[in-house]
Amino acid sequence: MYRIITLSLIIFLTIGCGNTESWPEFGGNSANTGSTTNTPPAHLPAEKWSFETDDPINSSPAVVDNVVYIGSDDHRVYALDARDGSLIWRFRAKDVVRSGITVADNTVYFGSRDNNLYALDAHSGRVKWSFEAPGSVGTSPVILNNLIFFGSWGNSFFAVDRNTGNEQWRLETGGPVVGSPAISDGLVFFGSWDKKFYAVEVLTGQIRWTYETGDLIHSSPAVGDGVVYFGSRDNHLYAVSTSSGELIWKYEADNWFDSSPALHGSTVIAGNYDYHVYALDKDTGDEIWKFRGEGPVVSSPVIARNTVYVASWERKIYAIRMDDGSEVWSYRANHQFTSSPAIANGNIFIGSRDKYLYVLE
Fold first, then answer.
1. Mean pLDDT across the stretch 134-140?
2. Greater confidence, 13 or 297?
3. Looking at the predicted structure, is the pLDDT value of residue 104 above 90?
4. Nearest 5 degrees, angle CA 222-CA 58-CA 202?
5. What is the number of other CB atoms lying within 10 angstroms of the CB of residue 105?
6. Backbone phi and psi for residue 29, each to the nearest 5 degrees, phi listed first
7. For residues 55 and 220, what is the distance between their CA atoms, to the nearest angstrom?
8. Angstrom distance (rounded) from CA 356 to CA 51
9. Residue 304 contacts residue 36 (beta carbons within 8 Å)
10. Rounded to an integer, what distance in angstroms lies between the CA atom of residue 95 and that of residue 134?
């Protein structure tokens, strides 16, 4: 049984008024570029507020109309006032929620380890529909028109009508699909633990092409200018043509690329388990700079105002200059980060494994 605790709708409507910046999904957009014109903190940030859940947070937040949405390992999704952290509503699924949150047209979409993709009313948290997959849903869903796309641990990938929850098509893969998809030019892109990266037609589910790597793919892709970028546990970051599936370049590091890349201008940014954040030339794969933190980088980077924001396993959030890779500032929390940051209205929103959602300003 699903449980919802809802506060006054008047609070929500008051929050939604005015012109505010949004971060509606993982990666900031359906291409997962991780790059935004939103306003980041102007200086070394301080904690604006924090909200404690009952278990670690591995979900990545969405921010829309001054409301932040976040999932938790406590089986819940929370809607909070982005300005002060006050609770608007919370919804309880039947298992852990590690999927990033996607918000569109007053609907909140996310997956759970209870094998369901959920669609909730953004105002009240009430269930509009749920779709049961053959395995845990940990991918952050992505939307194109009336379809929503996501993968599951049940070796499958789905397109579902986002208004009704009716299945449009499914594709069986040779392994779990745990990274979030990206969409561009009528194709949806995703990787699988079967070592393959897929380009699939959004309307039919027909495979356009696949590219096989040397190990499983946990990373989510980013797409820009006819190229899709993704990492693999074979220690490589790949750049592949979206139209043909042909390799353009690959870059080898010392460990896994589970962090998903971000794109800005002529540069691709990606974190690695070898403690580094890498900046590479988008066209050639040549290394521009690398930044070493104090632990593995699992969280995916975000780029705003020529600064890279990324969290790492050793409890720090870093701000890094895009031009030379130098550290601008770092902020230490109480536990590791696997959640990826969202940026809006001069704030950074990120969940931590210490059970807290942090908002820095």
1. 97
2. 297
3. yes
4. 35
5. 8
6. -160, 175
7. 25
8. 5
9. yes
10. 15
Per-residue pLDDT, averaged over 156-169, amounts to 98
User: What's the mean per-residue pLDDT of the chain?
Assistant: 94
Sign of the Cα pseudo-torsion (169, 173, 176, 180, in order)? negative
Token pair of 98 as six digits: 């590690």
67-71/62-64 β-pairing:
antiparallel
φ, ψ of residue 14 in degrees (nearest 5): -65, -40
Cβ contacts of residue 219 below 8 Å, gap of 6+? 179, 191, 230, 231, 232, 257, 258, 259, 260, 261, 270
Which contacts qualify for 121-125: CB closer than 8 Å, 24 or more apart?
122/64, 122/67, 122/69, 122/79, 123/9, 123/12, 123/13, 124/4, 124/6, 124/9, 124/89, 125/4, 125/5, 125/6, 125/77, 125/79, 125/88, 125/89, 125/90, 125/91
Q: Amino acid letter at 317? A: I
- Average pLDDT of span 74-81: 98
Strands 35-36 and 302-304: parallel
Cα 110 to Cα 78, 205, 272, distances in angstroms? 12, 21, 26
19 — pLDDT class (breaks 50, 70, 90): low
Contact by Cβ (8 Å): 26, 60: yes
* Residues 101, 63: Cα–Cα separation, whole Å: 9
Structure tokens of 344? 């809006």
Local structure of 39: helix, strand or coil: coil
For residue 5, pLDDT over 50 is answered with no
Is residue 17 scored above 50 in pLDDT? no
- Triad 233, 96, 274: Cα angle to 5°: 25
